[in-house]
Amino acid sequence: MNQRSRLSLLVTQVLIVSLMVALLGRLFYLQIGAGSKYKNAALSIQSRDIVTPATRGLIVDSSGVPLALNRVGLAVTADRSVIDRQADKGVAVLKKTAKLLGLKYADVYLLTRLCGEQPTGVQAGCWTGTRYQPIPITKDADPNLALQIVERADQFPGIDAAPVAVRNYPGIDGANAAHLLGYVGPLTEGDLKGASGAKYYRSESIGKAGLEFQYDSFLRGKPGIKTVIVDRKESITREAQVILPIPGNHLVTSLDARLQASTERALADAIMRARANGQRADSGAAVVLDVKTGRVLSMASYPTYDPNIWEKGLTLQQAKDLFSEKTGVPALSRAIQGLFAPASTFKVVSLVAAANAGYNLNATYSCPASVKVGNIDFQNFESRPQGTISMKESIAVSCDTIWYRIAYDEWLRDGGLFPKKNLNDYFFSSARGFQVGEKTGVDLPAESSGRLPDRQWRINWYNQNKSYFCNYATRASKSQQSTFLLALAKENCADGDKIRGGDAVNFSIGQGDTVITPLKLAQMYSAIANGGTIWKPTVGKAVVTTAGKVLERIAPSVLGKLPATKSTLAFLQSALRQVVLTGTAAGAFAGFPVAVSGKTGTAEVFGLNTDGTKKANTSWFASFAPSESPRYAVVMMVSQGGFGADVSAVGVRKIYETIFGVTRNSLVGAQPLFPQGPPSILPKISPTLKVSK
Amino acid sequence: MSAMIALRKRSRRRRALKGFDPVLTIAVIGLLIIGTLLVYAATRSWYASQGLDPQYYLKRHVINIVIGIVLAFSATIIDYRLLRAYTPILWGAGVLGLIAVLIPGIGSTVNGARAWISLPGGFQIQPAELAKISIIIGLSMVLSEKIKDRDAPTHQDVLRALAIAAVPIVLILLQPDMGTVFIICSSVVTIVAVSGAPSRWVVGLLLLAVLGGFSAAKLGVLSEYQVKRLQTFVNPSADPQQSGYQLRQSRITVGSGGVIGKGLFKGPQTNGRFVPEQQTDFIFTVAGEEIGFVGSASILILFTIVLVRGFRIARRSQDLFGRLVCTGVIAWFAFQAFENIGMTMGLMPMTGVPLPFISYGGSSMFANLIGIGLLQNIHARQRG
């Protein structure tokens, strides 16, 4: 054999064997080196998780009446994995289904699209789940129509009807509670990406607002997951594992359905009454707290909406209306998000300030028609001189000028426009003691904190707006260039970082830049009523498992103490009683058989309505009862409602009528809502969801 | 003619045959058994789910093997040295088959290549598979003929040999079946190298292959279908739905098998048919997934045994012709196995070549087993 040939044979042999070794190396890398990576990749190709959402826990009131439950609805669903395989991609069968159900085909088409298939911007109504689960076209089909679909399955290939759980807010006793309860909805992409740190499955519903949002992790439960292995054509070849769903836990609240309904009615009535008197009365809120625990017994906001619209499938118009100025932004929960000047209801803060500053509460003070501060006359709200009156009387008749004088004197004592080193700031520190400007900490999402316009706030505000005020003539729009506004801007530019005499005076009567939420005011009056303890308001009372075991008790917690002595508080309580006995609220409570203490408030509002008219006064009434041993604090606010006494005080009286069972100004045969006070034991939650009342 | 008479005399002198190489036989049988199981695993659940006979492919595969073994035995009967006489006939038949396949109405197109002749009864033959044997034998004959006068083939011999190979290669290019062309070219270069031809030829041919492949892709000689396959090899995300999808799925399927695999018949990727052509071109994915590294490496080791035994026969061959035929057959098996398994694992571009002895497919099985028959033929006629 030729040498070259022999050598070539050897080289070829080496080459070919090394090819085999290369394959072996690659095989080792794929199967052992990177095996786990490819195993996961294969799993994601083959397996599909079919999620069965867990039954959501109930939300019940303090006696077990369900406020949120799960109703059985009849869902008509489309199976995309079936209809996509039809020659026309399911167009015909979807059209037929739409016609049967009386829906528009365009809507049905959109409902059955996966959100990922839709270009951004036209995703409203799209299905956030996967292709592998039936997509609901409606959850509330007429049983007769649904039956037609089931019986004529051959004519509706890929369409099915089956019962599903629908979140339902039954409105028992007439309680709407939309803002408290919130709603549930599909997950967003953000939720799925784990923005909140929780792990979700696509087809789960989660709480979007209110208690549904706040207690979502308890209510939601754990979905059941069936993992199936599919082939390339997406048909299921076998089931890999089945995890059964774990139902969510129930939430027991401190609310009472009857009181909630009554509160909502009283608020709506107050608003209607104000409108009948020519007021705009665009919105309002009412809150009832247990002063001994801070528990929320009811909370209403007007305008409201049907909490069930979310589950019925919101139309575009409904979605717009919820957030529209025209309809009064029904989505806004005024009780915890509405910010309004507290006006005279804030005098409780001023009174504590005066007492702490050393003013004699039992002395008499002059209540002139106006007080000159600088070169401006600050007038009594009703411009009526009362002569010389006691401090108690001044609260009762809501004299402003007393407070102007005291506030102005204290401001001067603190150095006026040139503040001293060691400031007393009795008014600001009293307000801080009442925790004005802080959230109440209620267990509801998106609470507003309000504003305490003290010296630091003013400096911050000035730094943000300085350049605007100092260039007002060029920066403001034409319509805002009135002589008054120009002068105001000039003043703000010059010393907008300082508390001026006018600011101090305004602060003392709850006007100016001070704003609070109705819930905050209820918290403040609760503290006055209970002897000075500031409680954190709570709606949730306990989380209970479906088996009835208490998983978690939500205990009331103390946030602080009022900066007032016992005698100051005693004086304050008697002054507030005087308001109802002989003062501004006497008319509203005439003949009422239970002793109520409270304070009216009528707040001036600056600014214009959308139609250009000036905004009308905010009507307030803040109260507690029974005066001798307070248990309930009730606050009502009506925006643009007019006088506090006329609108809100009457509304609050109606709420007390329900609480104490007053009929025709009498307690004879009265059936109070809580004969032994709000329930302290947890109710039994019937697993069959039967309503006992 | 005188040479043939001399050969006949010699063969008569040495009537006693040495017998077959048992190691080679056992390795091939091992591959055939594994292949049969894998073909069954690749098709049973798919066919069952379609309501068809799950053993359809299994039965046909076994029939192919039986026919193949008969053909292999036939290839051992006649002394391989006598085959030289039939070389022109073999070559002519191969070329005729390749021409026939290009005629519309006779040849049918599968996966973009016009490579099949449909026969009555649902059978198909792939002339290119059988043409491999004609080319190897033809080339070996031309390059070993002049050996009496000179130590090695002359330039003229090499040119003649290349001309003989070029005709069928061009015909296969027209189908076009790039995988088969690659394998035949590799085999041709190996035969030329081992023939002792001037090394300039070997270097030149290798350069030509590289340049040819490169410019073919650049100048658009390759069909769109082939360019796509080549591109997805370089950049797997270029065509995620088609070729890229197949490469990705195939790699994942092999990788997911791990050390011992998911168990025969239990591979979810295989049973879900996520990899296309898994009983033919992508059969190695079934091995990867279901019998894991242990099983797949065994296939590689069995192949290595077949190849190493083939080289042993080539080294011990009495004459250059035998050695060249051996070398050609080994190169064919080696490059085809490398191309097929390499493609499955993302090492080689995607082409439609079956895995020898394993993949389903009659023509390929027949050709492979005839190739083994030739190796055994040469082994049997070695000197003790």
Explain this structure.
The complex is a heterodimer of chains A (693) and B (384). Chain A is of the alpha+beta class. Among the domains of chain A are: 48-253, Penicillin-binding protein 2a (Domain 2), CATH 3.90.1310.10; 343-507, 3-Layer(aba) Sandwich (Beta-lactamase), CATH 3.40.710. Chain A contains 25 helices and 23 strands. In chain A, the strands form 7 sheets. In chain A, strands 2, 3, 4, 5, 10, 18 and 19 form a 7-stranded mixed beta sheet that branches. In chain A, strands 12-11-23-22-21 form a 5-stranded antiparallel beta sheet, with helices on both faces. Chain A has a 3-stranded antiparallel beta sheet with strand order 1-8-9. The longest helix of chain A is centred in the N-terminal third of the chain and has 31 residues, at 3-33. In chain B, strands 1-2-3 form a 3-stranded antiparallel beta sheet. Chain B has 384 residues and is mainly alpha-helical. Chain B is built from 14 helices and 3 strands. The model of chain B is unreliable at 9-15 (pLDDT under 50). In chain B, 69% of the residues lie in helices and 3% in strands. Chain B is globular and about 65 Å long. Chain B starts with a helix and ends with a helix. Chain B has one domain (18-380). At the A-B interface, helix 1 and helix 2 of A face helix 7, helix 10, helix 11, helix 12 and helix 13 of B.
Mind telling me the C-alpha Rg of chain A?
A: 33 Å
Count of separate structural domains of chain B: 1
What is the makeup of the main sheet of chain B?
3 strands, antiparallel
The strand line-up of the biggest sheet of chain B is 1-2-3
Note the total helix count of chain A: 25
Report the major sheet of chain A: 7 strands, mixed
CATH class term of the domain at 48-253 in chain A: Alpha Beta
Give me the CATH architecture of the domain at 48-253 in chain A, please: Alpha-Beta Complex
Number of strands of chain A: 23
TL;DR of this structure?
The complex is a heterodimer of chains A (693) and B (384). By secondary structure, chain A is an alpha+beta fold.
